[in-house]
Amino acid sequence: MESDDHPTGAGAKAHDGNHSEQATIETLEEILGSMVHAISNSLNSVMAASQLANLLITQGRLEEAKTSLDRVEDECARAARLVRDGRNLATLRVPDSLDGVDVAALLASCAAACTDLGEVRVDCEADLPLVHGQADALKRLFVEILDNAFQFGARNIAVSASRDPERGAIRIGFRDDGPGVNLRPDTLFDSFVTSDPAEHSGLGLAIATQIAAAYDGSVGLDESPSGAVFWVRLPVAVP
Questions:
Q1: Which of 11, 37, 73, 233 is most buried, most CB within 10 Å of its CB?
Q2: Which CATH class, in words, describes the domain spanning 14-26+96-235?
Q3: What ranges do the domains of the chain cover?
Q4: HSE of 49 in the Cβ direction (CA atoms, 13 Å)?
Q5: By CB neighbour count within 10 A (0-12 exposed, 13-18 middle, 19+ buried), where does 59 fall?
Q6: Which of 124, 102, 107, 143 is nearest to 237 (CA)?
Q7: Which helix (H) or strand (E) holds 229?
Q8: What pTM value is reported for the model?
Q9: For residue 236, which phi and psi values (nearest 5 degrees)?
């Protein structure tokens, strides 16, 4: 669950019925703490694998030693990825919202940007009001969610957008045909949380959450018998 560069302050978690609603903007201290923990785990793996490789070399077990050294290389690459992506999250700056954003047009643009990853079908309610946010930042939010789904096995994603009149907001749903989510919903949107740490740094959904929260929005996950159903709720822009 991953991704580059874009005010952050403290936020709070809310709840929407039976579904967990994440609206937290992590502080720099929290981000750095999570990054240090993740990198420490990777470096501990490097140390253990290198020690094992040295032992195997002294015993003449060179093929097994090579396997351990390959693990050292993989963990070094992972540590570098954690540093790079962690810096991107820590330096994320979300532009102030100057104008409302046409969410239907923006989703169509996001779908076009993901054509090399899989199929994205967009179905928006007619005459949706503009949402509170800045177009480039919201595009990154939506692309992070789409990219996360494709990276974890989805091939088709159905995107919908509709009014949530009780909240004065627009709700955007992302239903995919992937294997589903095997992480706890209360940790899914935190930084450096991923079901595949060997390949992913676990920051894509964290970045999406930061952007949504900066515009008084939220990101969440609905229960689903198959695949995954993420959603974003953004307030309607005030003229």
A1: 233
A2: alpha beta
A3: 14-26+96-235, 30-90
A4: 18
A5: exposed
A6: 102
A7: strand 228-235
A8: 0.75
A9: -70, 140
